[in-house]
Design brief:
3 helices, alpha+beta
Length: about 70
């Protein structure tokens, strides 16, 4: 899921570099923002500074819900 957001960002930056029309840039920018919003809804995103550089850390929010579904069966 996070890779889709990164791919959308790469496409948006490519379009921005090639001086694409404003309508296409707006569409790609909104799509990129939606992809990153979906990542924050499905995962907890934090920044890990333990190695001296900022690295994103993703934790799945649905883990507890899966266990609940398995135990109720």
């Amino acid at each position: 899921m996070a890779s889709a957001g990164v791919l959308q960002l790469i496409i948006f930056l490519y379009l921005l570099d090639n001086e694409t029309s404003t309508v296409v840039l707006f569409s790609a920018g909104v799509g990129c923002a939606i992809e990153f919003w979906k990542v924050t809804k499905a995962m907890t995103v934090s920044i890990d500074w333990s190695r001296g550089i900022p690295l994103p850390k993703f934790e799945d929010k649905a883990g507890g819900h899966d266990l609940f579904a398995y135990y109720t069966l």
